[in-house]
């Protein structure tokens, strides 16, 4: 859940990955998970599912 929260923060605020605030997982961990999920098509599916909930 912390990785998802960090990705959401990054998407909302923008900027560089290294700027993740204290208390979030290391930026390389967050970025690595995002890249894996993108490669598998899971991130796009999560975004579609979230859009349907609105």
Automatic annotation (TrEMBL):
It holds the Pfam family DUF4096. It comes from the Bacteria. Residues 2-47 form the Insertion element IS402-like domain. InterPro entries: IS402-like_dom. This is Transposase. It comes from Belnapia mucosa.
């Amino acid at each position: 859940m912390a990785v998802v929260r960090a990705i959401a923060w990054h998407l909302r605020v923008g900027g560089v990955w290294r700027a993740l605030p204290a208390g979030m997982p290391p930026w390389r961990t967050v970025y690595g998970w995002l890249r894996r999920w993108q490669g598998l098509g899971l991130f796009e599916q999560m975004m579609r599912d979230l859009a349907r909930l609105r």
